[in-house]
Amino acid sequence: MPGYATHQLTVRLSGHDYRIEALSDLQQFADPDGTAARAGISSAQWSLFGQVWPAGRALAEAMAIADVDGKRILEIGCGLGLSSLVLQRRRAEVVASDHHPLAGSFLDRNAWLNGLPPVTYRNLPWATPDATLGRFDLIIGSDVLYERGHAAQLVALMQRHAHPDAQVLISDPGRGNSGAFSRGLAECGYSVSETRSAFAAGEVAPFRGRVLDYRRGSAGLPLAEASP
């Protein structure tokens, strides 16, 4: 990307290699025209979107095997878009979203690197209603509960954009904010199951990382029982 140092890495998921262009490090920040300030992104957070994090890989692995046939899917906080690329390869109907000003450009680049059509992208601040976005059968996100206030924002987002018979799948590294999110979704009629697993090589049980699977209505079988 112009003005940024990047490198390409290969992520292998369910027998497929995904080429991902990422930022070379976490120290890159420039805001000559006030883009970061307008987006409300601090210099410390600016480069975080540009990496493949363990929680993001865990979510992409889940999307490689999830039942997505006939579902309209929204990824929130997509970052570099790995999970959305997996879904695009599987020909799912997916909308990727983020609020970082560079996310859409990196998503387009990574789709091109993998020979995929561009993924539909939306700028989606979580606290700002968007009446044009519509509703989804499956909403996914990785490490999206990294600040205390995000739980309430995302519960409200689910109320706006989830179908009555919806599934929400969140990969979480265990930052401690998932409890408030789970309670909020329970009040909206969701049940939750969780699968704890190692998000990085060398981790040993008990694992902090987990995939949280929220279901409401006739959303279908749990992920572990879903067919590829």
Automatic annotation (TrEMBL):
UniProt KW Phosphoprotein keyword: no
Coiled-coil features, chain-numbered ranges: none
Presence of the UniProt keyword Acyltransferase in the record: no
Sorted UniProt keywords: Methyltransferase, Transferase
GO biological process, one term: methylation
CDD domains the record matches: AdoMet_MTases
InterPro entries: Methyltransf_16, SAM-dependent_MTases_sf
Single GO term (MF): methyltransferase activity
Pfam family name, one: Methyltransf_16
PANTHER family: HEPATOCELLULAR CARCINOMA-ASSOCIATED ANTIGEN
Protein name: Type 12 methyltransferase
